[in-house]
């Protein structure tokens, strides 16, 4: 990546040794060169980015400090509300809609001096694991254009991987930051539920969604997370705590850290080349002083089933508002019912419709207890099993994705095959716990592999320490 | 007049929605105010824009708990739930309400008659926007176009659900009326049916008198006044009876009160067995009121209307119904203090009911008590009392001083007797006629004498005392 790390960019811009404008221009040049083939963006904000960069440079010239992200080009997943700018969730139903407000995270990164370069592509309404469910065409993996970047935040992952931006924000409901991060060879973090405000994130599944950073390295990810984390009054589920210190603990190492490899997620169903990297990662941690053993979180085997009831159920309610009455596209009808039906039929893609139907069914009278109710009870079993594991371990380890990036079209025939991509990432969403993917080696096909570090609630500092060690080891190979 | 024919009994329960008079809406900082231009009190949250999230208004929760305690409810740990259905006045096509775990349960309300109506629950929920329809009959079906105003969307409501304890249209009206008084007394709502800050839906069924079964009920909506409530309940009950008499049965359904035609109509939507797919609201935290919270709320409750009626009735030795008038006017505190200070209860009640309708003005309790004492001790006639009262109200001062200034002193009875005798002596012919006349004529002649006495005493004579003396002399 030509532009260098976000950490260095901010330091240089603040010091006045590098202009924000030059950084933005480099990113825009990269976008010019490869965006046509990668299709990471729904919207590139070239002029706005240049103007914003000029403003940063002027402030630095006046002796002001624009903040920890000064001049850093950042891409935003297109389910984050950006005031006055189209925010589509890669769906026809919101094509052209411009929110009248900024998401809280957007306010924070701009206040920290960050430069928004564009809105990135995603699986429609964040439902998917390959970004093939976008109404505006898929994003392609910058490492191999015939392959998917993962999803649902495929555009953000690809943008960082291709050097279109130094940082990106995505959202993770069942793995939608971590899995594309692994497939694209970048760092992706899902924070503790409630650590980052959801105000302005267009909701998919309210009890699972979290916004998190994509970066080319662990320190950059920590930097971005520090900026966006911390209590927000606009989100009632926001933890009443300030943002944690992460950058400062990165070099603390892992001496004596107890690491558990989740056995239920490191056997059947995981590709051998992925497993090989998982074990190599474990060895690297051991060499750095960690104590590595096998951990068991038995209820994780129920994670997929519980998730594919809870998430669609909440989504069926969260997506009800798209009825053509107030905003977005409308298809007329003879009655309001007909209008709503026609609007939603035309506006939603197949996977979104599938999940709305699944979710409506799971919540319906007579079935609530057997499906949604039961899935929520399974959720508490997962939380309990994690708690037991964290009595013995400080962090847990697993693959992020069962395989490396697959070919476009390879898994679209059967939705269930696609859902299986999330088996390693889903349990953290159900438990509300943090987890991140760190690039570690490549597969037999030369495509990136990511190793997942999991931590207990608000265990970001420990998680990042382990990630930093893994990154160093990966770089040294 | 009974609502239903003999042999039948009307069974009804009411669902009353009360808008809480908080400054802002339930989940956002938009102003909670009636009558502003359409869509001027809105924001991303109450419009349910993509990405918006609710933040709970603490004042609304306080008000809701206060209302619950005023209705003798248990205040519970509670959680919000989503009620999912599609309608243009619903910004998110789900309503945030309380379902499985409402804030208030198991209360009651006592009517002025003394009858107790059970209250199942009183839960918190948000209001919807308001639609208006152009063309057609003013309803959504057949409208040319519809407009939606979201100013009301997100306004906090408490929905109060009664047990089916109501047995007549009058009881239904009394229930709503009493509920309104309670709500006003505790200051949580302005409860105006005409502005929609209090809305009533009635559930109505019938059964053979003496039976304890619950038959099919219908829910009646679109009741916009107390008199409509009375007529709607009566109509619906008789509609059911008509069906039973014809060998048929009512369908369980939601019906619409048609004010123009004074009848209920079946709802045209297919929503009869709507599945709302309730589930706990994931964007809000559960409510956990502490014992201290509830104690604080209890301490903040004023004396409620029923208790005020009882209190006044007890000291005045009347029944609660009689006390209701003064309590309704908010004048019972004054009445209670006056009676407790020793004023004659009967005179206190009559004066307040009849002569103090517009309030006490500049007059304090103590002055009123002394005035009533002057009256009951015979120092002032009824007429004089009324005049002093009026001046006390208008300008304050002391009753003794006012009476003296006006030269009011009720005549001593011996002085009065002397004047009567003097007048008799001065009018011997009329007196003779009076003594010899029959009762009817005597009454006519008496008026002549009474006039003379009043003129002679400048109105100071007590009318009753004068009449007594004349009748004694006549005998």
Please compute the radius of gyration of chain A using only Cα atoms: 21 Å
Strand content of chain B: 15-25%
User: CATH homologous superfamily name of the largest domain in chain A?
Assistant: Amidase signature (AS) domain
Percent of residues in helices of chain B comes to 25-40%
Largest interface: A-B, 44 and 32 residues
Describe the secondary structure blueprint for this structure.
The complex is a heterodimer of chains A (477) and B (475).
Chain A: H1 6-15, H2 20-38, E1 41-44, H3 46-61, E2 73-77, H4 104-111, E3 115-120, H5 154-161, E4 167-172, H6 178-184, E5 187-190, E6 210-215, H7 218-228, E7 258-262, H8 272-287, E8 291-295, H9 303-318, H10 336-347, H11 350-363, H12 369-392, E9 395-399, H13 415-419, H14 426-431, E10 435-442, E11 448-454, H15 460-476
Parallel strand pairs in A: 2-3, 2-4, 7-8, 7-9
Antiparallel strand pairs in A: 1-3, 4-6, 5-6, 5-10, 9-11, 10-11
Chain B: E1 8-19, H1 58-70, E2 74-75, E3 81-84, E4 94-97, E5 104-110, E6 116-126, E7 130-134, E8 145-149, E9 156-162, H2 169-186, E10 198-208, E11 218-223, H3 226-245, E12 254-258, E13 263-266, E14 279-280, H4 291-300, H5 305-316, H6 320-328, H7 332-340, H8 345-355, H9 365-376, H10 382-395, H11 399-405, H12 413-426, H13 428-436, H14 439-457, H15 463-474
Parallel strand pairs in B: 11-12
Antiparallel strand pairs in B: 1-9, 1-10, 2-5, 3-4, 3-14, 5-6, 6-9, 7-8, 10-11, 12-13
Helix pairs in contact in B: 1-4, 2-3, 5-6, 5-7, 7-9, 9-10, 12-14, 12-15, 13-14, 14-15
List keywords for this structure.
heterodimer, A: 477 residues, alpha/beta, Amidase signature (AS) enzymes, 2 domains, 11-stranded mixed beta sheet, B: 475 residues, alpha+beta, 3-stranded antiparallel beta sheet, 15 helices, elongated
